[in-house]
Amino acid sequence: MAVKLALLQSGDQIIADVTEVLSGDKAVAYLFEKPQKLSYNAPIFLEQDKGGEASVEVTLSNWITVADDDKIPVAINQVVALVNPIKDVVNMYNAKINAGTN
């Protein structure tokens, strides 16, 4: 399992511990464990920090607000891209999940 950031067909950006669901040797879905929706705080703009890197302010919230499930399967055709999130976002996700404020 690995923490990944998924861009969905809906436009949602979801960070979760992601594993592939296989049928035989073919991936048919992804299993998102403890998924959180990543939102950009308004206004959206990039600012330069002292290191010269761009930064944005983000918030993590429950992806499906009233779901009682920690693991949610997502059809593979609903995922546009699956990427490694930046370290700060992974740390934020891990802190939230480990604090039990899912």
Query: Which segments are poorly predicted (pLDDT under 50) over 5 or more consecutive residues?
Result: none
What is the percent of helical residues? 10-25%
Query: In total, how many domains does the architecture comprise?
Result: 1
Tertiary shape? globular
Q: Tell me what the CATH architecture is.
A: Roll
Could you tell me the mean pLDDT?
88
Task: State the secondary-structure class.
Answer: mainly beta
Q: How many strands?
A: 8
Cα-atom Rg, whole angstroms? 15 Å
Largest sheet data? 6 strands, antiparallel
Succession of helices and strands: EEEEEEEEH
Distance between the termini: 19 Å
CATH topology: SH3 type barrels
- The CATH class turns out to be Mainly Beta
The tally of helices reads 1
Q: Into which percentage range does the β-strand content fall?
A: over 45%
Describe this structure in words.
12% of the residues lie in helices and 51% in strands. It is built from 1 helix and 8 strands, in the order E-E-E-E-E-E-E-E-H. It has a single domain (2-98), classed as SH3 type barrels (Roll), CATH 2.30.30. It has one helix at residues 87-98, and strands at 2-8, 13-23, 26-40, 47-48, 54-55, 58-62, 71-75, 79-83. It is mainly beta. The mean pLDDT is 88. A hairpin with a 2-residue loop joins strand 2 and strand 3. Strands 1, 2, 3, 6, 7 and 8 form a 6-stranded antiparallel β-sheet that branches. A two-stranded antiparallel ribbon has the order 4-5. It starts with a strand and ends with a helix.
